[in-house]
């Protein structure tokens, strides 16, 4: 099993986040303590304690008696404990994070003077927090939901917070609607049900009542809402920001993160099961990858529109429910981010990190996007109630550049500022404002003339074009998944008004979609739909996503064995999986030692079949060995492992006697297996009946059409899932 070790000091040193100052790790070092067995237990006020086990009592001859309230040690422990909880985030309460570094490889100086986006020699430390939106802090990771992707850049010019999601658009256009959209999505007010689900009346009631939400709910019903890993998600700033260059010119900009590992999702049945079998699935996945040194990486992209072109599009570029299609505004990749260090302690780092969209650095600015402007108010405000007015002093939040001003006091202030004045101007000229040349933030001199009104521009009123664009751009399997998602979600709405209206709404996107869903969920079947413009944008599909280098790095591969396994296949596959930086997980019929067919070797499995489930891995390999295969064949759970992995479209590999086992477990005539010494690949079931010397010790290159067993097995895993199986309808037949 992957090492999940506590962070050591060596690791902290190893994760050097850049030579050019701004090193957040050494900054945090001032507040980081190492626990050692040389230290003795003390109270918070430093007095050593002789016991942590017994409250001071008035004892009688039997050494029993009532507790004495005078015990300061016991009272401190209990009272400290009573106050451990702070309010969880009102949205995005469930999350996890990691440290890393950001660097631009191409200067964007034509559009901004912000050094974080222009200085290619600079490494900027970052902390990224990923999250779900609707669930509370203890909810499951794999629920169907939007994922948060929030990045804190500790730049030398101050903090820049880019607070985005894994979906490029949002449900609403104007921030004033945020409480409504969140109330509708969160558990219903009367009984606080359901937890971390959008599958309920109120959520869909809101969606119907807000046509502007149509585009976003299509994304939220797509595979984007059930990612395989945080490491395999795109990130989007969503809102329109601005960049200002040294000439004082302004451009509108959208920010994007694109993962090196490609964009991949779970399948729905797997996500449902994982929510119970391993609710921390995504948390552990990120932690494990970083501990194993397989650092996740993202390319950083910008889409830029010159100020003069603001009105040249048929949508409003300040409307957060719209993407800027790549064929109109291509993404320019200028930088990359790597996450390479797990936090030392969850609460002071991942929980107390506080993002504010209003935190930008000189060279980056806001736009009149009415969602962004409301966000700029909301985040700062929420941190005050969550963490207190001095939240920016907390180690994880404080900048790595100097901070000096006349803000004072408030709960838990701990900076001690020397000096006799706390105002500006003062007779000593202490702490004067900075000029532009000294790096002072200067707002762009945007001309603003207007009348007060509660309105939106005309283009904000068009709500269906891009919802159709998204649907049209999906591959056949992605469309299937969206249809199934609606079937699930609307089935959970008990109110016929809600599901009846929603199927009508779907006809605004695609009549076929609406009719299929209506038939299943019981709404009136629409006869007419809104005309579909038929346009597509291939970049929106994740199965059609730009090819990434095929890799199995960090993928979990189960090896199923019992006593009598074939040691040659087992060790060949184990070594090759490790060499490819994937994670071999030996799953035994038991966790005590399992012995090979010739008695030469034995292995202690990482888990047994009942304790661990096929949902927790990306692929399955079963080596031959008569005894092992016979035991597995009699074990219902082992057969279930194979059938379930097949149903979840995962690659299955088998050698020797295990080929028959796989064939029997799947039992579909369409899926054929090897009958000789030739490698056979049928719907991602890769088999080899006769192992010849060297069959499993070939140098593995992961490339299409490769001939060797492991090559073919690994290639299939690198493709994430076998979509052909789903297109042929085989996955539901096992
Ligand atoms: Fe928000 C948290 C992303 C609209 C108000 N939001 C929060 C987080 C993410 C986002 C990733 C978690 C940050 C963390 O990890 O601590 N939010 C978005 C995106 C939006 C968006 C991509 C649309 C473009 N949010 C939005 C609006 C408002 C808020 C319109 C209010 C007007 N969001 C909040 C908040 C939260 C928050 C209440 C809760 C905890 C926090 O801020 O720190 O202020």
TrEMBL record:
Keywords: Heme, Hydrogen peroxide, Iron, Metal-binding, Oxidoreductase, Peroxidase. It holds the Pfam family Catalase. InterPro entries: Catalase, Catalase_AS, Catalase_clade2, Catalase_clade2_helical, Catalase_core, Catalase_haem_BS, Catalase_immune_responsive, Catalase_large_C. CDD domains: GATase1_catalase. Transmembrane segments: none annotated. It comes from the Eukaryota. Residues 42-432 form the Catalase core domain. GO terms for cellular component: cytosol. Gene3D superfamilies: 1.20.1370.20, 3.40.50.880, Catalase core domain (2.40.180.10). The active site is at 92, 165. It is an enzyme of class 1 (oxidoreductase). Its EC number is 1.11.1.6. Belongs to the catalase family. Occurs in almost all aerobically respiring organisms and serves to protect cells from the toxic effects of hydrogen peroxide. This is Catalase.
């Amino acid at each position: 099993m992957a090492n999940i070790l506590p962070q050591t000091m060596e690791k902290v040193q190893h994760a050097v986040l850049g030579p050019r100052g701004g090193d957040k790790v050494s900054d945090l070092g001032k507040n980081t303590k190492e626990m050692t067995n040389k230290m003795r237990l003390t109270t918070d006020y430093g007095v050593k304690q002789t016991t942590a086990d017994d409250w001071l009592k008035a004892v009688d001859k039997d050494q029993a008696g009532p507790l004495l309230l005078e015990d300061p040690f016991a009272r401190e422990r209990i009272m400290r404990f009573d106050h451990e909880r702070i309010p969880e985030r009102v949205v995005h309460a469930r999350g996890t994070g990691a440290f890393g570094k950001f660097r631009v490889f191409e200067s964007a100086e034509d559009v901004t003077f912000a050094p974080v986006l222009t200085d290619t020699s600079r490494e900027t430390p970052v902390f990224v927090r990923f999250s779900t939106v609707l669930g509370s802090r203890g909810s499951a990771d794999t629920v169907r939901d939007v994922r948060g992707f929030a990045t804190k850049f500790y730049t030398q010019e101050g903090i820049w917070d880019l607070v985005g999601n894994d979906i490029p658009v949002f449900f609403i256009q104007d921030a004033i609607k945020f409480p409504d959209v969140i109330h509708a999505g969160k558990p219903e007010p009367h009984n606080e049900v359901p937890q971390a689900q959008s599958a309920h009346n109120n959520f869909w009631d809101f969606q119907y009542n807000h046509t502007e939400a149509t585009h976003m709910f299509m994304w939220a019903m797509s595979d984007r809402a059930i990612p395989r890993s945080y490491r395999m998600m795109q990130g989007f700033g969503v809102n329109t920001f601005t960049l200002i260059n040294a000439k004082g010119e302004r451009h509108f900009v959208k920010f994007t993160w694109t993962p090196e590992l490609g964009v991949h999702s779970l399948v729905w049945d797997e996500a449902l099961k994982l929510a119970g079998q391993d609710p921390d699935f995504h948390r552990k996945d990120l932690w494990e990858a970083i501990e194993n040194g397989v650092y996740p990486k993202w390319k950083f992209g910008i889409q830029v529109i010159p100020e003069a072109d603001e009105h040249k599009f048929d949508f409003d570029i300040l409307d957060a429910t719209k993407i800027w299609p790549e064929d109109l505004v291509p993404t320019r990749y200028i930088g990359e981010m790597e996450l390479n260090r797990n936090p030392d302690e969850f609460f002071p780092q991942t929980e107390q990190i506080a993002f504010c969209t209003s935190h930008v650095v000189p060279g980056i600015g806001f736009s009149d996007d009415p969602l962004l402007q409301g966000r700029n108010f909301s985040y700062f405000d929420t941190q005050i109630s969550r963490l207190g007015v001095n939240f920016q002093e907390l180690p994880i939040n404080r900048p790595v550049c100097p901070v000096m001003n006349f803000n004072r006091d408030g709960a838990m202030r701990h900076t001690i500022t020397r000096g006799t004045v706390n105002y500006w101007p003062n007779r000593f000229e202490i702490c004067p404002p900075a000029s532009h040349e000294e790096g002072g933030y200067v707002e762009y001199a945007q001309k603003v003339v207007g009348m007060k009104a509660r309105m939106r521009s005309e283009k904000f009123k068009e709500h269906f074009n891009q919802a159709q664009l998204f649907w049209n751009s999906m591959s056949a399997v992605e469309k299937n998944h969206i249809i199934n998602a609606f079937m699930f979600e609307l089935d959970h709405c008990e109110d016929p008004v809600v599901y009846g209206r929603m199927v009508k709404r779907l006809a605004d996107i695609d009549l076929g979609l609406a009719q299929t869903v209506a038939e299943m969920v019981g709404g009136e079947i629409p006869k007419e739909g809104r005309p579909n413009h038929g346009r597509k944008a291939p970049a929106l599909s994740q199965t059609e996503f730009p090819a990434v280098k095929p890799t199995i790095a960090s993928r979990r591969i189960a090896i199923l064995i019992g006593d009598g396994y074939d040691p040659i296949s087992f060790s060949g596959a184990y070594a090759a999986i490790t060499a490819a930086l994937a994670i071999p997980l030996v799953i035994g019929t038991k966790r005590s030692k399992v012995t090979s067919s010739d008695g030469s070797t034995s292995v202690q499995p990482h888990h047994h079949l009942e304790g661990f489930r096929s949902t927790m891995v990306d692929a399955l390999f079963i080596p031959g060995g008569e005894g092992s295969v016979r035991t597995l064949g009699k074990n219902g759970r082992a057969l279930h492992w194979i059938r379930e992995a097949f149903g979840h479209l995962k690659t299955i590999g088998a050698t020797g006697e295990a080929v028959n086992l796989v064939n029997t477990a799947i039992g579909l005539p369409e899926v054929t297996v090897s009958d000789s010494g030739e490698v056979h690949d049928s719907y991602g079931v890769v088999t080899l009946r006769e192992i010849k010397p060297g069959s499993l010790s070939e140098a593995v290159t992961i490339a299409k059409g490769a001939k060797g067993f492991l090559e073919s097995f690994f290639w299939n895993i690198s493709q994430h899932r076998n979509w052909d199986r789903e297109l042929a309808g085989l996955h539901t037949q096992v």
